[in-house]
Amino acid sequence: MGVISSNKTINTSSIGCDGSLRVKLAFTAAPDIASNPTDIVLVLDRSGSMSGTPLSDMKLGANTFIDIIDESTDGSQDGQIGGGSRIGIVSFATTAVANTQLITSVADLKTAVDGLMANGQTNHADAFTQAINLFDPSSQNAKVIVMFTDGNTTVGAPPAPVAEQAKSQGIVIYCIGLVGSDGVDVATLNEWASDPDSTHVAVTPTSADLEELFEDLAANISKPGATDIVIDEVVNDDFSITNLETPNFGDANIVNANTIHWEIDQLGVTSTESAVLQFDIQHTAQTSGTKQVNASVTYNDAEGNVVTFPNPEVTVNCCDPDFQVECPTPIDFTADDCNATIDYDLGENELEGVGRIVTLSTTIRRVCPGKRVALAVSLAELDDEGNEYERGLKTYTIPAHSCTGCQDVNVSNIKFVLPEDISVGTCNTMCCQRSLRARVISHYIDSGSICEDDQQ
C-alpha cells in the first residue's frame, strides 16, 4: 500500500508577535497487499458517454488492474486473488448494480467487466452506496474503493456525503477520471478521494491512457510500505525552531534555525504504522498578519511514494497597545563660571507639592479596537487604625487602539506626590513607612449607545 496518509497540524490558530506554537508532522504507511489482505471494489462508469472506444479502453484498464493484483497477492498470475484479498465489481449509469460480490476468481471478475454496456445517465451517489454495501464491516481486511468516471453527476443524490461516509468507515477511495463529453470536475474527484489528492486522484484527457492509469494504481496499492525515508522540513523565515522532540520512528535533528532533517529506515513494512514528529517554533519577525508555517517540506523514499503535507497558517498579532503618562517638561539652564550663587526663575508649574513620588502602573484588560477608555486612579494613605486620607486623584483619556481584536492596554508612569508634612504616622522623615491604598476605575467612553433623541 505504501504511504496511505499524511498530515501537518499546529496547536493554535493565533499567537502574539513573539508567540510560540507546536507543529505536528505525521504520516502512515501500510504493507504490501500480500501481507495486508485487502478488499477492493472497482466502481466503473458505464453511462451513455462511455460508448465506443472509452468503454473498450476502460475494460482493458480494469482487467490489467485485476491481473496486477492477482500477481501481487501470491507471486503469480494463477487466476486467483490470493493472500486473503478479494475484488468486487460495481458498475453504474442511471442506477448502480453489483456485478459481482467480493470474490477471488479472476475469470469471473473479467467476465463481469467485459459484459458491461454503455447507456443512461451518471449516478455517483448510488455507485458509492453499492460499493459500501459490498464490504463486510466485521472483516479485518483493508478496504479500498477505486472509482472510475468520465463525467459529472447528472442524476441521483449528491455523492460527496456518501463518499465521506465511506471514508469515515475506514475505506480508502481512489479516483480515476476520463475527460468525457461533459468534462470531469477534478475538484470533485479530489473531494471524494482520500488524502492526499496527489496519490489518490488521476485524470487523463484520452481513454488510451486508461490502461496505464489502472496499472499505476494497482502498483501503488501493492507497494510494500516505505523504506529509506528522508524528510526535510523548512519553516518560514518569520519563525525559528526552538525545540525538537524525539520522533517515534527514526532520527531527527535541527540543521539550522529553520530546518529539520528526519530519516526513517522503514515504516509500514510488516504492519500499518504511523510516524509522528513534533517540534516548537517561535515567531521572530516584527510583522503581523496571517502567515504560512512552511517554507517547504520534501519527502523521498526508496519506493517512490508521492507524499504531500498541508501547509497550516497562523495569525500573528504584533500589536501591543501601551499608554504612558508624560513626565513633566524639563527646564534647562546654565551656571556661569565663578558664580557662587545661581538665581533662575523656573516659571509657573502645576501644584504637586513636595515629598515622595509614587509611580503606579496598571493594565486595562481586553480593550476592543476603536474605543477610548476613561481611567481614574485614586490614592489614599492609611493610619494605624485603617482610616483613609485622600492623597490625590488622576484621570486620563486612553486613546483608542487599532489592533486586531481586543487587547490588554498597559498604562504606566502614573505619578502621585506624597508631601512628608501630611504623613499620618508618628515619624516625619523619609525613612518612615507609609501605608497606601490605590483604587482604579475604567470604562469605555465610546459606547455607541446614544439615543436618537439625544442627537437632536
Description:
The chain has 456 residues and is an alpha/beta fold. It folds into three domains: 2-32 and 225-317, Immunoglobulin-like; 38-221, Rossmann fold, CATH 3.40.50.410; 322-328 and 352-444, no CATH class. 16% of the residues lie in helices and 39% in strands. It has a six-stranded mixed β-sheet, with helices on both faces. A four-stranded antiparallel β-sheet has the order 1-3-14-11, with no helix packed on it. Strands 12-13-10-16 form a four-stranded antiparallel β-sheet, with no helix packed on it. Helix 4 (160-168) links the parallel strand 7 and strand 8. The longest helix is centred in the first third of the chain and has 22 residues, at 53-74. It is elongated and about 120 Å long. The termini are far apart. The model has no long low-confidence stretch (mean pLDDT 88).
Poorly predicted regions are none
Instruction: Compute the separation of the termini in Å.
Output: 75 Å
Q: If classified by CATH, what would the architecture of the largest domain be?
A: 3-Layer(aba) Sandwich
Q: Which strand order spans the largest sheet, edge to edge or round the barrel? A: 6-5-4-7-8-9
Average of pLDDT: 88
Structural class: alpha/beta
The CATH topology assignment of the largest domain is Rossmann fold
Give me the CATH superfamily of the largest domain.
von Willebrand factor, type A domain
Largest sheet at a glance? 6 strands, mixed
Helix content: 10-25%
| Number of helices, counting only DSSP H or I runs of 4 residues or more | 7
Number of strands: 23
Strand % is 35-45%
Q: For this structure, what is the CATH class of the largest domain?
A: Alpha Beta
Task: Count structural domains.
Answer: 3
**What is the 3D shape?**
elongated
The run of helices and strands is EEEEHEEHHEHEHHEHEEEEEEEEEEEEEE
Rounded radius of gyration (Å): 37 Å
